[in-house]
Structures are given as C-alpha cells and as structure tokens.
Amino acid sequence: MNEKPGYALARYLLVDKPDQLERRAEGMAVGLTVGSWTDLPATRQASMQPYCGTVEGVEIQEELENGRVRAEVTIGYPTRNFGPSIPALLTTVFGKLSMDGQIRLVDLRLPKSFIAEFPGPKFGVDGVRERARVHGRPLVMSIFKSCIGQDLDELAVHFREQAAGGVDLIKDDEIFFSEQLAAPETRVQRFRQLADDIASTTGKPVLYAVNLTGPTFGLLERAKRLSDLGAGALLLNVVAYGYDVLQALASNPDVHVPILAHPAVAGAMYGSATHGISSHILLGQLLRLAGADIAIYPSPYGSVTLAAKEGAALVESLREPNGLKPVLPAPSAGIHPGLVPTLVRDFGMDIIVNAGGAIHGHPLGATGGGQAFMAAVAAVGAGQSLKQAAEHSEPLRLALDKWGYPSA
Ligand code: 1AE
User: Fold this and answer.
1) 54 ligand 1 Cβ < 6 A
2) What's the 296 CA to ligand 1 centre distance in angstroms?
3) Nearest ligand 1 atom to alpha carbon 143
4) How many percent of the chain have pLDDT more than 90?
5) Cα–Cα 20 to 30 A to 76, which of 24, 97, 220, 243?
6) How remote is the CA of residue 355 from the centroid of ligand 1, in Å?
7) Where among 115, 142, 157 does a domain terminate?
8) CA distance 376 to 337
9) pLDDT number for residue 37
10) Cβ–ligand 1 contact at 239 (below 6 Å)
C-alpha cells in the first residue's frame, strides 16, 4: 500500500456479501468522514469534498460458505479531519467501524508530513544505548518478579541481586503498583543509590525502569518527578492508559528519560484473526508515533507468543525510515539465554533481551541469571557460539542445561 499525500490509508479485512462490497466501502469512506451527503446540494458537496474519505481498493480474497466473501477494503481518510492525535485517528479509522461485524484493521499507511507532526521517541535506539553505555551487542533487561507485597528494604535486596549480574536495565513488573509499601519515588531514590554504588566499581550504569502508576491526570507530574529523581526509564502500560497519555509524556521536555512501553491489554485487540487491530499497528506504529523509546512485545518463541510474521512486521514498523527515531524492540515472555542467537538472527543486534523467569529461576539465583544473559549477548556480539561461551561461563552453562538452546 503506497502513501497518499494528505490521507491516512487504512486497509481492512472484512466479511460481506460480494454484491454489497462496493456499497459498504463507500459507506465507510463517507460515513466516517463527512457523514451522509447524498441529499446535500452540489455546492455543499463540493465544499465538503476535501474532508470526504475515498475508496482506494476493494479486492475479494476468499469465497466463504453461505454466499459471503472475505475481502480487503482500503479507505483513505483526509488527515486534516483529525490532526496529530492518535485518539482522533483511531476513532476515525476504526471507531464504530470496529463493532461492525467481522472486520479487522490490518494496515495503516500515513503520509510522512503527517508522521512528522508527532513527537516520536525522544531517545530512540541511539539515545538508550548512549544512556546505558552499551554498543555492539544487544542490551539485557531484567524484570523484577515477586515484588508485590514487599517493602523497600526487601526490594532493594532484589535490585542488588539483579544488578550484580551485570544487566543493563532493571524494570518493574507491569503489575507492580505497590504504592503503600514502596512508592515509585522512594524506589527510584533507593535504587539510584544502589546503582551508583555498583557503577563505581563496575564503571557501567544500570538503569532502573520504574512503573509509572496512578491516576492518569497525575502521571505527567509523577513522570517529571521520577525523571528528576534519577529514574533510568519510565515504564508505561500504554494500551491500558491510552496512546495520548504516552504522547503527552513523550512530548514534554521535562520528562527527560526514555519511556518503555509495556503491551499489557493489547492482546484483547490484536488476538483475533477476524476482529481487532494488527499487532504491528498497536505495538509498533502507534507506539513509535506517540513516543515510546523501547517497545516490549511477545517474541515468537517464548511463553506468550506472536506469530513470526507478525513479530517481523512489528519490528519493521519500529525501525522503517519515516523521519522519527527508531524504537528499541524488546522481545519478551519466556526468554532464556539459549534464545539470544535466535533473537539476534530474527531481529538484529539493536534489541533489548528482556527476561524475568529465566533471571530469577536460574540455578544460581538472579545474579547468576543476569550473568548467563550477559555471557550470551557478549558471545553473540563477538560472533561466538553459546556452546563455546559456556566453556568460560558457569552461569551460562547452567542456563543452557536448564532451558536448552535451539540452534539459531
Ligand atoms: C510480553 C510481556 C512479557 C512480560 O511482561 C513479562 O513479565 C515476561 O516475563 P518472563 O520473562 O516471561 O518471566
């Protein structure tokens, strides 16, 4: 699907009777833009023309039972109708339409001039690498697990154990909202101290990605505060809050740390083959427009998976040249050190290897888990096999014994 200046091109997969397709497409183009204009005088129709949607294509894909077909329909929506607002864009291209039977939004092509109106990532791949001081290999992020119900002292022990493994980032679990026992502000201050102590001996920073929780209208102030207190990054459950929240945070100059987008809730929207929105739009394209620096997504190999083709499309949308900085993809869910070569084969070096279970479930504990991942990414960065690297790394050997290593 090519770009059309001044129009957002939305491609849908839908089911209908073949003789209804043209009319349905026309109804979408007009109904989601200028409403109905059939009864309007010609002069009024002409003045509304620049705001009216256009039918760009109708193509039957498959004959189904009961006389229906599956078809691809492409509609162009004038971008002047909504401006650089993701809520307005989504409401136009897939607002009430999303409830109109079997229909799925499978692709969205936006003009470069329209994309340029969005903030996009403030840091992107290079900015995050710079802050973590990591080049030439994938980054490693450890996920806090078993954190609910723990106070600050207990959490500090977990932080130190993870950091001692040499990982580049440590992120809160997305379900960690433990305000009463250890507020995000106190965690950032305490972990910053620990990270500084560790950095003074290792010479390498470890960034703490704190979960940005609480009521929506307090998020911006909290994000500024956490940035000032020394957070390494801010974790946001973007789909639960909404893309506009991310955009407001990312475009604010006082939020001066990278934003890490978690995909929680997105499966409810991309999971069906016949309804919803494709994952590369939700977890790729829109996150990048709104300003995520790091995008977590289910890899094709772990415990919560995304089909390989969809994962590839998602990563492509985080990186394709479009004028905005590229986003760092963080393939996740069930990731263990043996998967590192496969991740790099499929997604390249510019990724964050993100793991929780395989860090904390390592036979030597979270420190050993981190060391195993660090040995794996170092090996891949140096073009060495994991088997060779495991000869010099006991933590990696133990991890490979426990979780195996599919050949990349
Ligand atoms: C796709 C989301 C993955 C996630 O949030 C998470 O916590 C993964 O943890 P592990 O590595 O599967 O234990």
Assistant:
1) no
2) 9
3) 7
4) 89
5) 243
6) 6
7) 115
8) 6
9) 63
10) no
